[in-house]
Amino acid sequence: MSRWSFVGRTDELNRLLSAVTGTEGRGLFFSGSAGIGKSRLLREGVAALPTDRYAIWSIAASATTATLPFGGLVQVLPAEQPQGLSPAGTLRWALDVLQQQAAGRRIVLAVDDAHLLDPPSAALVHLVARADNATVIGTLRDGEQIPLPIRALWTDDLVDKAELSPMAPAETAGLLAAILDGPVDAGSADRLGRLSAGNPLLLRELVHAASGSEELTRTYGIWKWTGRLELAPNLTDLIDTRIGQLTPGVRAVVELVAFGEPLGLHLLNQAVDPDDVEVAEERGLISVIRHDRRTNVRLAHPLYGEIMRRRCPVSRTRRLQAHLAELLERVGKRRRDDVLRVAVWRLDSGTAQDAALLVDAAGQAFSRYDVPLATRLARAALDAGGGFDAAELLATILMFADRPEEAIEVLDAVSPDTTDDQRFSRWLTVRGMVTYWGLSRESTVEEIAARAGSLTDSADQARIRAFEAIMRLHRLDTATALRLSQGVLDRPAASVAARELARSTIAYLQAAQGQLRRSATAIAQVHSEAARWRADMPYLQLALELARGTRLTLAGDLAGIDAIAADEFADLAGAGDFRLGTGYLAILQAYAARLRGQSDVALRTSLGACAVLATSRVYAGLAQAERAQAAALRGDAAQAAEAMAEADRTQAPGMAVLYPWLEQARGAALAAAGDLPGAVKQLTELVDRLRADGFAGHEVHVLHDLVRLDQAALQVGPTCSDGSRRTIAQRLTELSERVDGDLPPLLARHARAAMAGDAADLLAVAAEFAARDLNVFAAEATAAALHRLRHERPAAAGEARERLAALLNRCDMIRTPALRAGMPALTEREWEVARLAAQGTTSKAIAEKLYLSTRTVENHLQRVYAKLGVAGRAELRAALRAIPGHEGGNVG
């Protein structure tokens, strides 16, 4: 584990520096709770100030010096003070000392924990703040008594005062990545961030505790927290200091809230003395929040609950939880959430006897995608005599917890009588789901189809046919999948869940075929019925997201991907450890980042998807394929090849429908390795296969990959009646009239412009790509135009070069064959000479630095000018920034 890094707080740091360096030179004090990062922010701000312009003194006040005159300034003032001076004279002497030591520079006095200053030190700080050539900055802790001279700093308008808020989730994730020397799984970062409440000190202690107890693991370079919290002594001491001593009445309040939050205020007031509730709120132990017409009570900090729950004796814990359940049952379980809350309290208190209540609660937990909680409740329901309903639900949940073998054991123990159509159909579909996706048994499809014939009820048959249809889709029996799905929709007796599962199958197939508008309509219909199918079939969300994600990626709709990655399902899946959901959404996010040119984010996010899906084979191959694409974008051929090998190893046979993504990634990996002929062969064969399968939506993207490899004129497809074959540009133009959306016409235009070598049209295409945030495609089209202009119209190349530099500045490191082909090749020596020249280094200085003659340096520069098509050093900087792989930031 590395040193705790300073991450985030950019706005606050800039504000602090502006308070010192601004024209007014006003000071600034940050206040906040202990551990929020005030002291570190102050130190970073002080370290960023130039000592040649500012005389900087840093003071760290403490309780040990608070009773000593000028004890707070012991680090600043001389050890020997003049004798016989009045208090005012001593202050004037101290100020004169600082002015003399400043030697004409502006004074900056940085005071950490100013609330702990002794009175003379506080008075001197106030006096310094009034000086014309001085600025005071500092920190204060919330809830502490502040010396009057310090308080007067902002009441007299000498400094500004601002509250330092908790770190934002993105900053917390960045801080975790910095301390652990690697990215952290999004779900783990979110849970740690919520537990620490954005407090860096508490976050540090949580990470240290988790690391010391081996609760942090690393897979594919991504850190993941198990969620088991170890309360190290340092962490416990911190929380104890905040909680302080509690009276029995206040302790009862805090304990009840710890086990019941969010707890209705009316319930809490029935269980304890309302006066104790008020005291707990006044001391900052609980928060009273108005939410959705209810007044709820929560603990003021998540870790308070961890401490209270750990320290509460088992007998009292069980009594408190049973009491909470009784309170809510007494007033009536008026809301759907109340059933889940009562069931959890009953289960944890050992008083759960109602199997129906537990089954209902387990279903609610699963509908929220809280897999661990749903598993506990469903197993308890089965143990309490819940019978078939409990077993069916538990087996389903175990499937999505990556425990298919256990699921089969549970199901086989409650195999129903085949004469009970409803139970048999449900048992058959769940068992089929587990064996097909969980155990990768392709024969499941035929088994389900054969046994469905024994059912007489139309609704039960429809349920099985909907499952059979999506299984057939996944193994590429698309015609049968479509027929079965349409048959389900044509059955009036079919349940909502069966109908919407069938509609999701059709929506996916429509997207792959390029019928994006019809797919969008079907997806919207499924989404609109979510409230009616989620309780019966919450995992239908996966089929919906697969269809929706496929449509958005094929449409190039990056904003749409951003939207579904930020909706309620993403939050629920992440919080509830629903790995198939979070893994697939991470794949989509990586795809969007890749097309934007954010290669760092794309690789990190795809690695996160690989880690989340490591124990599940449903989307594991797809995650590895996206990782290969991200690595290829960065020119990392070794990692791309490694990811493709993992994709082949983990790709489940029953997910054959995902082959376009895997084979497209294989082409990118070959190209990254420099095997362009192999990449072209791989992609042209994929085009033929997609054409045969009718997957026109995928075909346009693979054809465009060939355009990016400078193959727009390559002939593909079958021979036409006149004996000729279509070029890629012609085929894309043909498909642009069949595949929905405005992206296919743009891809076709790119192909035609590349084939004709039309620089102006390439730049126009690049502008449209950039408007869609498709920065990689935009940069490649611009590089191709620049390559043409250098040879045909060198004078016109300048604008294209500037545009390319601007596009590459929007991207991280990207090294694609198209960018390499469009850029002039500089030798390492030429690059080094050009880089130094662009920084303004003279030829003589370059010669001395590189141990060359001045004449040799000039010769190198002339060759660079000719290769880049620039007239001199004034144009050189932008030209170098437009060369991918040389990190434009190194230019100067």
From TrEMBL:
Signal peptide: none annotated. GO terms for biological process: regulation of DNA-templated transcription. It holds the Pfam family AAA_16. Residues 819-884 form the HTH luxR-type domain. One of its GO terms (molecular function) is DNA binding. Keywords: ATP-binding, Nucleotide-binding. GO terms for cellular component: cytoplasm. PANTHER family: TESTICULAR SOLUBLE ADENYLYL CYCLASE, TRANSCRIPTIONAL ACTIVATOR DOMAIN. It comes from the Bacteria. InterPro entries: AAA_16, P-loop_NTPase, Sig_transdc_resp-reg_C-effctor, Tscrpt_reg_LuxR_C, WH-like_DNA-bd_sf. The keyword Glycosyltransferase does not apply. The keyword DNA-binding does not apply. This is LuxR family transcriptional regulator.
